[in-house]
Inverse folding.
C-alpha cells in the first residue's frame, strides 16, 4: 500500500504504517500548522501592510470603525488614568462619556499609539492583527478535528468569503470577540486534560466582557456546547470544565466590580449604570415595539446573512445536503465520531446563537459574526470532502508556492487597500 513498508520477520510479514505525505507536508495532526517560513513571511507581510496603512493615512468609511479609530487617537493623548473613560468627542454628533461598550477594544490601539504609531491607523492595525489571529486559531482547531491539510486549506479559504472581504480592515469589536471566543474554547479543551490551563478561559471571557460586555453571552454559548459535546473526544473529567466555567463567571463579576470602581474614581459616575441605561434598558425581548420589525423579520434577516456572509462555504454545505439526500443517515453514520461531534457543535452553536438573538428588539449582522465563521469552517471542510479536487488543488499550490496562505493574505490585503471591499453588502 502507498505509504506502507513491509518488514519481514522469520515467519511473517508485518505492515508498518507511515503517514502519507503531500509534497513536503504530512497530514498528521501533530505536525505544526505553520512552518517557520510561514511565520516569517506573514510577519513581514503584516509589517508591510501596517506601514502602508500609516503611509496613506488609511481611514475606513465604516461608521463604527471610524468612531473607534478616532477614540483611540484621542485617548492616546490622555493621561493613562483616563484611558478607562473615553468620550464621544463629537463623533456621531454626540458628546460626553462614551458608555456604549467598555474600553477593551481601544486599549491595544492606544498602547500602539504610545509607541509612535498614529492613533487612527493603530486601531486598524490592531483590527487586522485580530482578524489574522482568529483565522489561524480556527484553522488550528480544524487541523485538530480533521487533518493538517484541512487546516492549511482553511488558512486560505476563510479569507475568501464575503464576511472576510467586508471586515478585512476594520477597527471594531467583531474580530477581538471572535479571538476571545476561540481562546476560551481552547482553554476549555485544555483544562479537561489538566488543571494547569484553568486560567485560560476565565482570562478570555473577562477580556470579552471588557471588549463588548453583554455579548460575552456568545462565547459562553460556545464553551458550554464544546464542554458538553467534547468534539475532540478528549479524555478527562468534565468536572474541570464545569469548575472552570464557574471560575470564569466569578472572575467576570469581580473584574466588572473593579472596572466600575475604577471608572467611578475617574469620572464620578458608574460605568455599568450608564451602560444599562444606554444599551440594555431600551432593549425589549419577545414583543416588538410599535412600528418595529418582529421576530420573523429578525429570523429572515439572520438567515439571509448566514447564507451570504460565509458563502461559498455555506452554499457548499447546502449543496452537499441536496446531493446526499436520501442517504443522510448512511452518510452520517459513515463519518468518524469526532467529525460528527464537531458538526453537532457547529450546528448547535449556530442555531442557539440565532435563537438567542431573534427575540431581541435590536438586531445587526455583526451579532452573528462568530456564528458565520463557525458555519464557514464546517462548510469549507465539507466542500473539500465533497469535491476532492478543491483540496488537491490547494495542496498542490501549498506544496509549490512558499508560504502560500501568507501570500494569499498579503495579496487580498493589497487588493482591499487598492480597490476597497468591492463585494456587495446586504442592506435592509
Amino acid at each position: 500500500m502507498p505509504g506502507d513498508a513491509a518488514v519481514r520477520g522469520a515467519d511473517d510479514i508485518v505492515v508498518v504504517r507511515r503517514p502519507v505525505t503531500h509534497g513536503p507536508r504530512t497530514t498528521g495532526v501533530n505536525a505544526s500548522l505553520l512552518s517557520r517560513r510561514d511565520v516569517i513571511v506573514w510577519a513581514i507581510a503584516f509589517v508591510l501592510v501596517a506601514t502602508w496603512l500609516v503611509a496613506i493615512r488609511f481611514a475606513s468609511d465604516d461608521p463604527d470603525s471610524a468612531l473607534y479609530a478616532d477614540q483611540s487617537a484621542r485617548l492616546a493623548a490622555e493621561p493613562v488614568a483616563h484611558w478607562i473613560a473615553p468620550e464621544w468627542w463629537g463623533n456621531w454628533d454626540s458628546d460626553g462619556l462614551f458608555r456604549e461598550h467598555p474600553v477593551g477594544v481601544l486599549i491595544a490601539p492606544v498602547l500602539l499609539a504610545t509607541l509612535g504609531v498614529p492613533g487612527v491607523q493603530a486601531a486598524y492595525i490592531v483590527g487586522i492583527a485580530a482578524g489574522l489571529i482568529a483565522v489561524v486559531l480556527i484553522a488550528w482547531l480544524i487541523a485538530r478535528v480533521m487533518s493538517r491539510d484541512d487546516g492549511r486549506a482553511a488558512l486560505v479559504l476563510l479569507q475568501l468569503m464575503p464576511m472576510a472581504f467586508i471586515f478585512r480592515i476594520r477597527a471594531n469589536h467583531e474580530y477581538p470577540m471572535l479571538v476571545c471566543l476561540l481562546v476560551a474554547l481552547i482553554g476549555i479543551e485544555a483544562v479537561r486534560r489538566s488543571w494547569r490551563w484553568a486560567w485560560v478561559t476565565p482570562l478570555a471571557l473577562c477580556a470579552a466582557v471588557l471588549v463588548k460586555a453583554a455579548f460575552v453571552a456568545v462565547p459562553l454559548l460556545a464553551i458550554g456546547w464544546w464542554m458538553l459535546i467534547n468534539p475532540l473526544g478528549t479524555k478527562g473529567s468534565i468536572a474541570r470544565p464545569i469548575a472552570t466555567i464557574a471560575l470564569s463567571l466569578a472572575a467576570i463579576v469581580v473584574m466588572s466590580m473593579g472596572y466600575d470602581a475604577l471608572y467611578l474614581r475617574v469620572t464620578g459616575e458608574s460605568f455599568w449604570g450608564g451602560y444599562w441605561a444606554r444599551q440594555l434598558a431600551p432593549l425589549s425581548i419577545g414583543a416588538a415595539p410599535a412600528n418595529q420589525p418582529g421576530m420573523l423579520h429578525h429570523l429572515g434577516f439572520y438567515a439571509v446573512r448566514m447564507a451570504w456572509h460565509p458563502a461559498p462555504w455555506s452554499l457548499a454545505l447546502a449543496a452537499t445536503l441536496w446531493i446526499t439526500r436520501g442517504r443522510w443517515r448512511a452518510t452520517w453514520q459513515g463519518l468518524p465520531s469526532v467529525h460528527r461531534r464537531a458538526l453537532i457543535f457547529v450546528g448547535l452553536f449556530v442555531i442557539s446563537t440565532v435563537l438567542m438573538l431573534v427575540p431581541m428588539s435590536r438586531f445587526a449582522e455583526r451579532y452573528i459574526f462568530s456564528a458565520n465563521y463557525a458555519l464557514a469552517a464546517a462548510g469549507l471542510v465539507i466542500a473539500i470532502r465533497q469535491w476532492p479536487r478543491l483540496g488537491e488543488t490547494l495542496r498542490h499550490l501549498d506544496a509549490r508556492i512558499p508560504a502560500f496562505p501568507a501570500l494569499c493574505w498579503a495579496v487580498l490585503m493589497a487588493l482591499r487597500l487598492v480597490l476597497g471591499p468591492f463585494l456587495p453588502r446586504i442592506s435592509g
Notes: The chain has a mean pLDDT of 90.
